[in-house]
Design goal:
Blueprint (H helix, E strand, L loop, with lengths): L2 H4 L18 E3 L9 E4 L12 H6 L4 E4 L10 E4 L3 H12 L8 E6 L4 H14 L4 E4 L3 E4 L2 E4 L7 H13 L4 E5 L2 H5 L8 E6 L7 H4 L2 H9 L5 E7 L3 H9 L3 E4 L6 E8 L4 E7 L2 E7 L4 H16 L8 H4 L10 E2 L9 E5 L4 H14 L6 E5 L10 H11 L2 E4 L9 H9 L4 H4 L5 E3 L3 H10 L6 E5 L6 E4 L2 E4 L2 H12 L1
Parallel strand pairs: 1-2, 2-3, 3-4, 5-9, 5-10, 6-9, 10-11, 11-12, 12-13, 17-21, 18-19, 18-21, 19-20
Antiparallel strand pairs: 6-7, 7-8, 13-14, 14-15, 16-17, 22-23
Helix pairs in contact: 3-5, 4-10, 12-13, 13-14, 16-17
Length: about 500
Protein backbone atom coordinates (compact mmCIF):
# COMPACT_ATOMS: atom_id res chain seq x y z
CA UNK A 1 0.00 0.00 0.00
CA UNK A 2 1.30 3.46 -0.88
CA UNK A 3 1.96 5.77 2.06
CA UNK A 4 -0.32 8.42 0.55
CA UNK A 5 -3.21 5.92 0.44
CA UNK A 6 -2.53 4.82 4.01
CA UNK A 7 -2.76 8.36 5.43
CA UNK A 8 -5.45 9.68 3.09
CA UNK A 9 -7.89 11.89 4.99
CA UNK A 10 -5.74 11.99 8.13
CA UNK A 11 -4.42 15.22 9.60
CA UNK A 12 -0.69 15.14 8.82
CA UNK A 13 0.97 18.35 10.00
CA UNK A 14 3.97 18.33 7.65
CA UNK A 15 4.39 18.10 3.87
CA UNK A 16 4.90 14.46 2.81
CA UNK A 17 4.40 14.86 -0.94
CA UNK A 18 8.10 14.45 -1.77
CA UNK A 19 8.14 10.80 -0.67
CA UNK A 20 5.46 8.18 -1.26
CA UNK A 21 7.01 4.76 -0.54
CA UNK A 22 5.20 1.42 -0.63
CA UNK A 23 4.45 0.36 2.96
CA UNK A 24 4.82 -3.39 3.57
CA UNK A 25 4.07 -3.41 7.28
CA UNK A 26 3.37 -1.22 10.28
CA UNK A 27 4.60 -1.53 13.86
CA UNK A 28 5.25 0.49 17.00
CA UNK A 29 8.02 -1.92 18.09
CA UNK A 30 11.42 -1.17 16.55
CA UNK A 31 12.46 -4.79 17.19
CA UNK A 32 9.75 -5.97 14.78
CA UNK A 33 10.64 -3.57 11.95
CA UNK A 34 11.38 -5.19 8.60
CA UNK A 35 12.29 -3.77 5.23
CA UNK A 36 9.50 -1.56 3.91
CA UNK A 37 7.81 -1.04 7.28
CA UNK A 38 6.29 2.14 8.71
CA UNK A 39 7.50 2.74 12.27
CA UNK A 40 5.17 4.50 14.72
CA UNK A 41 7.22 6.24 17.42
CA UNK A 42 4.86 6.02 20.37
CA UNK A 43 5.58 7.71 23.68
CA UNK A 44 4.86 5.76 26.86
CA UNK A 45 5.22 6.32 30.58
CA UNK A 46 8.73 4.90 30.65
CA UNK A 47 9.87 5.10 27.00
CA UNK A 48 9.97 7.41 24.00
CA UNK A 49 9.63 5.81 20.59
CA UNK A 50 11.64 8.62 19.05
CA UNK A 51 14.70 7.16 20.76
CA UNK A 52 14.32 4.01 18.65
CA UNK A 53 13.94 5.67 15.26
CA UNK A 54 17.59 5.06 14.34
CA UNK A 55 17.20 1.36 15.08
CA UNK A 56 14.01 1.21 12.97
CA UNK A 57 15.76 2.93 10.05
CA UNK A 58 18.72 0.58 10.32
CA UNK A 59 16.32 -2.37 10.06
CA UNK A 60 14.79 -1.02 6.86
CA UNK A 61 11.77 1.16 7.68
CA UNK A 62 10.67 3.51 4.89
CA UNK A 63 8.79 5.96 7.06
CA UNK A 64 8.41 7.21 10.62
CA UNK A 65 5.28 8.55 12.31
CA UNK A 66 5.87 10.84 15.27
CA UNK A 67 4.03 13.49 17.25
CA UNK A 68 6.86 15.94 16.70
CA UNK A 69 9.36 17.04 14.06
CA UNK A 70 12.45 14.85 14.30
CA UNK A 71 15.52 14.50 12.11
CA UNK A 72 15.45 11.57 9.69
CA UNK A 73 17.53 10.86 6.56
CA UNK A 74 16.10 12.49 3.40
CA UNK A 75 15.10 9.12 1.92
CA UNK A 76 12.90 8.32 4.95
CA UNK A 77 9.35 9.70 5.00
CA UNK A 78 8.39 11.56 8.17
CA UNK A 79 4.76 12.06 9.19
CA UNK A 80 3.92 14.35 12.09
CA UNK A 81 0.53 13.35 13.52
CA UNK A 82 -0.95 14.33 16.88
CA UNK A 83 -2.90 11.98 19.15
CA UNK A 84 -0.65 9.23 17.92
CA UNK A 85 -2.25 6.24 19.66
CA UNK A 86 -5.65 7.04 18.16
CA UNK A 87 -4.09 7.67 14.75
CA UNK A 88 -2.01 4.47 14.92
CA UNK A 89 -5.22 2.47 15.32
CA UNK A 90 -6.67 4.12 12.21
CA UNK A 91 -3.48 3.40 10.26
CA UNK A 92 -3.42 -0.23 11.40
CA UNK A 93 -7.07 -0.80 10.61
CA UNK A 94 -6.63 0.63 7.12
CA UNK A 95 -3.36 -1.21 6.42
CA UNK A 96 -4.83 -4.56 7.43
CA UNK A 97 -7.89 -3.93 5.20
CA UNK A 98 -10.45 -3.39 7.95
CA UNK A 99 -10.20 -7.02 9.12
CA UNK A 100 -12.99 -6.81 11.70
CA UNK A 101 -15.45 -6.36 8.82
CA UNK A 102 -14.57 -9.89 7.66
CA UNK A 103 -15.41 -11.65 10.90
CA UNK A 104 -17.26 -10.98 14.15
CA UNK A 105 -15.49 -9.67 17.23
CA UNK A 106 -16.57 -10.35 20.79
CA UNK A 107 -15.16 -7.93 23.39
CA UNK A 108 -15.19 -8.63 27.12
CA UNK A 109 -14.19 -6.13 29.79
CA UNK A 110 -14.41 -6.03 33.60
CA UNK A 111 -12.09 -6.31 36.57
CA UNK A 112 -12.52 -10.04 37.10
CA UNK A 113 -13.62 -12.86 34.81
CA UNK A 114 -12.37 -11.47 31.49
CA UNK A 115 -9.82 -14.17 30.84
CA UNK A 116 -12.06 -17.12 31.68
CA UNK A 117 -15.06 -15.68 29.84
CA UNK A 118 -13.10 -14.96 26.65
CA UNK A 119 -11.63 -18.47 26.86
CA UNK A 120 -15.06 -20.06 27.28
CA UNK A 121 -16.47 -18.06 24.37
CA UNK A 122 -13.61 -19.27 22.17
CA UNK A 123 -14.08 -22.89 23.24
CA UNK A 124 -17.88 -22.97 22.89
CA UNK A 125 -17.84 -21.34 19.45
CA UNK A 126 -15.01 -23.48 18.09
CA UNK A 127 -16.31 -26.76 19.52
CA UNK A 128 -19.76 -26.08 18.06
CA UNK A 129 -18.40 -25.60 14.54
CA UNK A 130 -17.85 -21.83 14.51
CA UNK A 131 -14.04 -21.31 14.36
CA UNK A 132 -13.05 -18.63 16.84
CA UNK A 133 -9.73 -16.98 17.62
CA UNK A 134 -8.68 -15.60 20.99
CA UNK A 135 -6.77 -12.49 22.06
CA UNK A 136 -6.16 -12.33 25.80
CA UNK A 137 -3.95 -12.36 28.88
CA UNK A 138 -2.91 -16.01 28.94
CA UNK A 139 -2.71 -16.85 25.25
CA UNK A 140 -3.65 -15.86 21.72
CA UNK A 141 -5.27 -18.48 19.48
CA UNK A 142 -5.25 -18.11 15.70
CA UNK A 143 -6.70 -20.83 13.49
CA UNK A 144 -6.62 -23.24 16.43
CA UNK A 145 -2.91 -22.59 17.11
CA UNK A 146 -2.03 -21.22 20.55
CA UNK A 147 0.68 -18.59 21.07
CA UNK A 148 1.96 -16.90 24.20
CA UNK A 149 0.39 -13.53 24.93
CA UNK A 150 2.45 -10.45 25.74
CA UNK A 151 -0.29 -8.31 27.29
CA UNK A 152 -4.03 -8.49 27.90
CA UNK A 153 -5.00 -6.14 25.07
CA UNK A 154 -2.26 -5.66 22.46
CA UNK A 155 -1.41 -2.35 20.80
CA UNK A 156 -3.59 -1.62 17.79
CA UNK A 157 -0.94 -2.64 15.24
CA UNK A 158 -0.74 -6.10 16.80
CA UNK A 159 -4.51 -6.29 17.38
CA UNK A 160 -5.52 -5.66 13.77
CA UNK A 161 -2.67 -7.81 12.49
CA UNK A 162 -3.88 -10.64 14.74
CA UNK A 163 -7.49 -10.25 13.60
CA UNK A 164 -6.42 -10.45 9.96
CA UNK A 165 -4.31 -13.55 10.67
CA UNK A 166 -7.30 -15.14 12.38
CA UNK A 167 -9.51 -14.56 9.35
CA UNK A 168 -6.86 -15.86 6.95
CA UNK A 169 -6.48 -18.95 9.18
CA UNK A 170 -10.18 -19.75 8.91
CA UNK A 171 -11.58 -18.13 12.05
CA UNK A 172 -14.93 -16.40 11.69
CA UNK A 173 -15.06 -15.01 15.21
CA UNK A 174 -12.42 -13.60 17.57
CA UNK A 175 -12.94 -13.39 21.33
CA UNK A 176 -11.02 -10.39 22.68
CA UNK A 177 -10.12 -9.57 26.27
CA UNK A 178 -10.45 -5.78 26.52
CA UNK A 179 -8.70 -4.11 29.45
CA UNK A 180 -9.54 -0.68 30.80
CA UNK A 181 -5.98 0.44 30.04
CA UNK A 182 -6.37 -0.88 26.49
CA UNK A 183 -9.56 1.16 26.10
CA UNK A 184 -8.03 4.28 27.62
CA UNK A 185 -4.93 4.01 25.42
CA UNK A 186 -6.89 3.51 22.18
CA UNK A 187 -5.61 -0.04 21.60
CA UNK A 188 -9.02 -1.17 20.32
CA UNK A 189 -9.94 2.14 18.70
CA UNK A 190 -11.70 1.52 15.40
CA UNK A 191 -12.65 -2.07 16.25
CA UNK A 192 -16.38 -2.72 16.21
CA UNK A 193 -17.61 -5.62 18.33
CA UNK A 194 -20.65 -7.69 17.39
CA UNK A 195 -21.19 -8.31 21.11
CA UNK A 196 -19.53 -6.61 24.06
CA UNK A 197 -19.80 -7.60 27.71
CA UNK A 198 -19.09 -6.09 31.13
CA UNK A 199 -18.44 -8.65 33.88
CA UNK A 200 -17.97 -6.44 36.97
CA UNK A 201 -15.93 -3.57 38.40
CA UNK A 202 -13.94 -3.75 41.63
CA UNK A 203 -10.84 -2.15 43.13
CA UNK A 204 -7.88 -2.42 40.72
CA UNK A 205 -5.62 -0.34 38.47
CA UNK A 206 -6.14 2.82 40.53
CA UNK A 207 -2.42 3.50 40.13
CA UNK A 208 -3.30 4.17 36.45
CA UNK A 209 -6.87 5.51 36.60
CA UNK A 210 -6.66 7.42 39.89
CA UNK A 211 -10.17 6.64 41.16
CA UNK A 212 -13.06 4.24 40.61
CA UNK A 213 -15.13 6.73 38.62
CA UNK A 214 -12.39 7.21 36.04
CA UNK A 215 -11.86 3.45 35.98
CA UNK A 216 -15.58 2.95 35.32
CA UNK A 217 -15.66 5.50 32.51
CA UNK A 218 -12.76 3.72 30.82
CA UNK A 219 -14.61 0.40 30.94
CA UNK A 220 -17.81 2.03 29.69
CA UNK A 221 -16.09 3.09 26.47
CA UNK A 222 -16.59 -0.43 25.13
CA UNK A 223 -20.36 0.14 24.96
CA UNK A 224 -20.14 2.59 22.05
CA UNK A 225 -17.97 0.14 20.10
CA UNK A 226 -20.44 -2.75 20.45
CA UNK A 227 -23.49 -3.57 18.34
CA UNK A 228 -24.96 -5.41 21.33
CA UNK A 229 -23.81 -5.15 24.94
CA UNK A 230 -24.38 -7.40 27.95
CA UNK A 231 -23.87 -6.14 31.51
CA UNK A 232 -23.89 -7.84 34.92
CA UNK A 233 -27.22 -7.02 36.55
CA UNK A 234 -25.82 -8.07 39.95
CA UNK A 235 -22.95 -5.57 39.83
CA UNK A 236 -23.56 -1.94 40.93
CA UNK A 237 -21.60 -0.60 37.97
CA UNK A 238 -23.48 -2.92 35.64
CA UNK A 239 -26.68 -1.39 36.96
CA UNK A 240 -25.27 2.07 36.28
CA UNK A 241 -24.53 1.10 32.69
CA UNK A 242 -28.08 -0.17 32.29
CA UNK A 243 -29.43 3.16 33.54
CA UNK A 244 -27.25 5.03 31.05
CA UNK A 245 -27.90 3.13 27.81
CA UNK A 246 -30.21 0.38 26.50
CA UNK A 247 -28.41 -2.94 26.91
CA UNK A 248 -28.86 -6.63 27.70
CA UNK A 249 -28.43 -7.96 31.24
CA UNK A 250 -27.29 -11.19 32.87
CA UNK A 251 -27.75 -12.03 36.52
CA UNK A 252 -28.40 -14.48 39.30
CA UNK A 253 -29.72 -12.31 42.12
CA UNK A 254 -31.57 -9.63 40.14
CA UNK A 255 -34.03 -9.68 37.26
CA UNK A 256 -32.18 -9.93 33.95
CA UNK A 257 -32.67 -10.79 30.29
CA UNK A 258 -30.50 -13.85 30.88
CA UNK A 259 -31.22 -15.20 34.35
CA UNK A 260 -29.45 -18.06 36.10
CA UNK A 261 -31.61 -19.97 38.59
CA UNK A 262 -31.72 -23.33 40.33
CA UNK A 263 -27.98 -23.13 40.92
CA UNK A 264 -26.42 -26.30 42.30
CA UNK A 265 -22.71 -26.23 43.18
CA UNK A 266 -20.67 -29.34 44.00
CA UNK A 267 -16.91 -29.92 44.38
CA UNK A 268 -16.85 -31.50 40.90
CA UNK A 269 -19.40 -29.64 38.77
CA UNK A 270 -22.07 -26.96 38.51
CA UNK A 271 -25.68 -27.23 37.36
CA UNK A 272 -28.17 -24.44 36.66
CA UNK A 273 -31.19 -23.36 34.67
CA UNK A 274 -30.48 -20.69 32.08
CA UNK A 275 -33.55 -18.55 31.45
CA UNK A 276 -33.30 -16.56 28.23
CA UNK A 277 -35.51 -14.51 25.88
CA UNK A 278 -35.60 -17.65 23.70
CA UNK A 279 -36.58 -20.12 26.42
CA UNK A 280 -35.07 -21.98 29.37
CA UNK A 281 -32.22 -24.48 29.21
CA UNK A 282 -30.66 -26.80 31.77
CA UNK A 283 -26.85 -26.83 31.74
CA UNK A 284 -24.14 -28.69 33.60
CA UNK A 285 -20.49 -27.60 33.67
CA UNK A 286 -17.25 -29.18 34.93
CA UNK A 287 -16.14 -25.70 36.07
CA UNK A 288 -16.51 -25.18 39.79
CA UNK A 289 -17.15 -22.03 41.82
CA UNK A 290 -20.00 -19.50 41.73
CA UNK A 291 -17.78 -16.96 39.94
CA UNK A 292 -17.44 -19.43 37.08
CA UNK A 293 -21.24 -19.53 36.83
CA UNK A 294 -21.13 -15.86 35.84
CA UNK A 295 -18.27 -16.50 33.41
CA UNK A 296 -20.14 -19.33 31.72
CA UNK A 297 -23.39 -17.38 31.82
CA UNK A 298 -21.78 -14.52 29.91
CA UNK A 299 -20.33 -16.95 27.36
CA UNK A 300 -23.74 -18.53 26.80
CA UNK A 301 -25.51 -15.17 26.56
CA UNK A 302 -22.93 -13.99 24.01
CA UNK A 303 -23.43 -17.20 22.01
CA UNK A 304 -27.17 -16.56 21.96
CA UNK A 305 -26.82 -12.87 21.04
CA UNK A 306 -24.66 -13.89 18.09
CA UNK A 307 -27.82 -15.54 16.77
CA UNK A 308 -26.76 -19.10 17.58
CA UNK A 309 -28.95 -21.79 19.14
CA UNK A 310 -28.28 -22.79 22.75
CA UNK A 311 -30.15 -26.07 22.34
CA UNK A 312 -27.87 -29.08 22.15
CA UNK A 313 -24.86 -27.33 23.70
CA UNK A 314 -24.54 -29.68 26.70
CA UNK A 315 -22.03 -32.06 25.02
CA UNK A 316 -19.90 -28.97 24.26
CA UNK A 317 -20.08 -27.75 27.86
CA UNK A 318 -18.93 -31.16 29.10
CA UNK A 319 -15.64 -30.53 27.26
CA UNK A 320 -14.92 -27.07 28.68
CA UNK A 321 -11.60 -26.35 30.33
CA UNK A 322 -11.03 -23.27 32.47
CA UNK A 323 -8.37 -20.72 31.61
CA UNK A 324 -4.85 -21.59 32.67
CA UNK A 325 -4.05 -20.32 36.15
CA UNK A 326 -7.69 -19.60 37.01
CA UNK A 327 -8.82 -21.73 39.97
CA UNK A 328 -6.65 -24.42 38.41
CA UNK A 329 -6.26 -27.72 40.26
CA UNK A 330 -2.73 -29.03 40.72
CA UNK A 331 -2.89 -32.79 41.14
CA UNK A 332 -0.02 -35.15 40.38
CA UNK A 333 -1.58 -38.43 41.60
CA UNK A 334 -5.19 -39.51 42.03
CA UNK A 335 -4.53 -40.41 45.65
CA UNK A 336 -3.27 -36.90 46.53
CA UNK A 337 -4.78 -36.38 50.01
CA UNK A 338 -4.90 -32.57 49.93
CA UNK A 339 -5.89 -29.98 47.38
CA UNK A 340 -3.76 -27.32 45.70
CA UNK A 341 -5.23 -24.55 43.53
CA UNK A 342 -3.47 -21.86 41.51
CA UNK A 343 -5.32 -18.63 40.74
CA UNK A 344 -4.51 -15.23 39.26
CA UNK A 345 -6.50 -13.35 41.94
CA UNK A 346 -4.64 -10.12 42.63
CA UNK A 347 -7.47 -7.79 43.60
CA UNK A 348 -9.46 -7.71 46.85
CA UNK A 349 -12.66 -8.81 45.11
CA UNK A 350 -11.05 -11.70 43.20
CA UNK A 351 -9.23 -12.82 46.32
CA UNK A 352 -12.45 -12.85 48.35
CA UNK A 353 -14.21 -14.85 45.64
CA UNK A 354 -11.61 -17.61 45.53
CA UNK A 355 -11.34 -17.70 49.33
CA UNK A 356 -15.12 -18.02 49.59
CA UNK A 357 -15.16 -20.89 47.11
CA UNK A 358 -12.11 -22.47 48.69
CA UNK A 359 -13.72 -22.47 52.11
CA UNK A 360 -16.67 -24.43 50.69
CA UNK A 361 -14.32 -27.15 49.44
CA UNK A 362 -12.60 -27.75 52.79
CA UNK A 363 -14.11 -30.59 54.87
CA UNK A 364 -14.97 -29.94 58.50
CA UNK A 365 -11.87 -30.26 60.66
CA UNK A 366 -9.47 -29.46 57.81
CA UNK A 367 -7.73 -26.17 57.04
CA UNK A 368 -7.75 -23.59 54.25
CA UNK A 369 -4.22 -22.35 53.50
CA UNK A 370 -3.86 -19.17 51.42
CA UNK A 371 -0.53 -18.12 49.92
CA UNK A 372 -0.55 -14.55 48.58
CA UNK A 373 1.48 -11.44 47.91
CA UNK A 374 0.96 -7.96 46.43
CA UNK A 375 2.54 -6.59 43.27
CA UNK A 376 5.06 -3.80 43.28
CA UNK A 377 4.67 -0.56 41.29
CA UNK A 378 0.92 -1.08 41.35
CA UNK A 379 -1.97 0.30 43.37
CA UNK A 380 -0.66 0.15 46.94
CA UNK A 381 -4.01 1.02 48.56
CA UNK A 382 -5.37 -2.48 47.90
CA UNK A 383 -2.57 -4.24 49.82
CA UNK A 384 -4.04 -4.10 53.36
CA UNK A 385 -7.49 -4.87 51.94
CA UNK A 386 -6.16 -8.03 50.31
CA UNK A 387 -4.45 -9.09 53.54
CA UNK A 388 -7.62 -8.52 55.56
CA UNK A 389 -9.61 -10.76 53.21
CA UNK A 390 -7.03 -13.53 53.55
CA UNK A 391 -7.09 -13.06 57.32
CA UNK A 392 -10.90 -13.36 57.35
CA UNK A 393 -10.99 -16.64 55.44
CA UNK A 394 -7.70 -18.52 55.85
CA UNK A 395 -6.87 -20.89 58.67
CA UNK A 396 -3.20 -20.66 57.70
CA UNK A 397 -1.64 -17.65 55.93
CA UNK A 398 1.50 -17.79 53.79
CA UNK A 399 2.48 -14.18 53.13
CA UNK A 400 5.09 -13.81 50.39
CA UNK A 401 6.15 -11.71 47.40
CA UNK A 402 4.46 -11.38 44.01
CA UNK A 403 6.38 -9.41 41.38
CA UNK A 404 7.87 -6.74 43.67
CA UNK A 405 9.27 -5.07 40.54
CA UNK A 406 11.18 -1.92 41.51
CA UNK A 407 9.84 -1.73 45.05
CA UNK A 408 11.43 -3.18 48.17
CA UNK A 409 9.79 -6.56 48.79
CA UNK A 410 9.81 -6.15 52.58
CA UNK A 411 8.09 -2.76 52.31
CA UNK A 412 5.31 -4.33 50.26
CA UNK A 413 4.90 -7.06 52.87
CA UNK A 414 4.70 -4.38 55.58
CA UNK A 415 2.01 -2.48 53.67
CA UNK A 416 -0.15 -5.59 53.39
CA UNK A 417 0.49 -6.79 56.96
CA UNK A 418 -1.31 -3.68 58.24
CA UNK A 419 -4.56 -5.33 57.17
CA UNK A 420 -4.03 -8.60 59.05
CA UNK A 421 -5.77 -9.36 62.32
CA UNK A 422 -3.37 -8.74 65.18
CA UNK A 423 -4.13 -12.10 66.76
CA UNK A 424 -3.23 -13.95 63.56
CA UNK A 425 -0.24 -11.77 62.79
CA UNK A 426 1.38 -12.81 66.05
CA UNK A 427 0.49 -16.50 65.93
CA UNK A 428 3.36 -18.43 64.34
CA UNK A 429 1.17 -21.44 63.61
CA UNK A 430 -1.26 -19.29 61.57
CA UNK A 431 0.84 -16.53 59.98
CA UNK A 432 4.02 -17.23 58.03
CA UNK A 433 5.91 -14.37 56.41
CA UNK A 434 8.42 -15.63 53.84
CA UNK A 435 9.64 -13.22 51.18
CA UNK A 436 11.02 -15.91 48.87
CA UNK A 437 7.95 -17.26 47.05
CA UNK A 438 9.41 -20.63 46.08
CA UNK A 439 10.43 -21.22 49.71
CA UNK A 440 6.96 -20.19 50.87
CA UNK A 441 5.36 -22.69 48.48
CA UNK A 442 7.66 -25.47 49.66
CA UNK A 443 6.86 -24.83 53.33
CA UNK A 444 3.12 -24.48 52.67
CA UNK A 445 2.92 -27.82 50.86
CA UNK A 446 5.01 -29.48 53.57
CA UNK A 447 2.48 -28.24 56.15
CA UNK A 448 -0.60 -29.67 54.39
CA UNK A 449 -2.58 -32.39 56.15
CA UNK A 450 -5.14 -34.74 54.54
CA UNK A 451 -8.26 -32.77 53.65
CA UNK A 452 -6.46 -29.40 53.66
CA UNK A 453 -6.62 -27.05 50.68
CA UNK A 454 -3.89 -24.63 49.60
CA UNK A 455 -4.82 -21.70 47.36
CA UNK A 456 -1.83 -20.04 45.71
CA UNK A 457 -3.09 -16.60 44.70
CA UNK A 458 -1.71 -13.85 42.51
CA UNK A 459 0.45 -15.32 39.77
CA UNK A 460 -1.89 -17.72 38.00
CA UNK A 461 -0.51 -18.43 34.53
CA UNK A 462 2.58 -16.23 34.90
CA UNK A 463 5.95 -17.86 34.30
CA UNK A 464 8.18 -15.31 36.04
CA UNK A 465 8.86 -13.35 39.20
CA UNK A 466 9.74 -9.76 38.32
CA UNK A 467 12.40 -8.23 40.57
CA UNK A 468 14.27 -4.98 39.84
CA UNK A 469 13.51 -5.06 36.12
CA UNK A 470 14.45 -8.72 35.66
CA UNK A 471 11.86 -11.44 35.00
CA UNK A 472 13.24 -14.49 36.77
CA UNK A 473 11.80 -17.82 35.57
CA UNK A 474 9.20 -18.99 38.07
CA UNK A 475 5.81 -20.68 37.97
CA UNK A 476 3.43 -21.36 40.86
CA UNK A 477 2.22 -24.47 39.06
CA UNK A 478 5.74 -25.73 38.43
CA UNK A 479 6.86 -24.98 41.97
CA UNK A 480 3.81 -26.70 43.44
CA UNK A 481 4.23 -29.80 41.26
CA UNK A 482 7.92 -30.07 42.20
CA UNK A 483 7.17 -29.92 45.92
CA UNK A 484 4.20 -32.28 45.67
CA UNK A 485 6.39 -34.85 43.92
CA UNK A 486 9.02 -34.49 46.64
CA UNK A 487 6.40 -35.11 49.31
CA UNK A 488 4.34 -37.79 47.60
Amino acid sequence: MKLSDLVKGMLVENDIRALDPIVLGITHDSRKVQKGYLFVALKGQSFNGNHFVAQAIEKGCVGVVSEEEILVPPEIALLVIRNLRFSMAQLAKRFYSYPNQSLKLIGITGTNGKTTTTTLVQQILSLSGHPCGLIGTVQNITGGVSMESIRTTPESTDLFSGIKQSFESGDRYVSVEVSSIGLEMSRVEGAQFAVGAFTNLTHDHLDFHGDMETYFRSKARLVRQSDKFIANADDPYGQRLKAMVPLITLGINNEADYRISGLRLTPTNTEFDFNTPKGSFFFRSPLIGSFNVYNLGFALAIYSELGLDLAGLQPILDQLVGAKGRFEKIKIVDSQPYGVLVDYAHTPDALEKICTEGKKLVPSGSRLHVLFGCGGNRDSTKRPAMAKIVSDYADVIWHTSDNPRDEDAESILNDAAAGLEHVKLNNSSIYHRIQDRSQAVALAIADLCPGDLLIMAGKGHESYQEIKGVKHPYSDRGCAEYNLRKRL
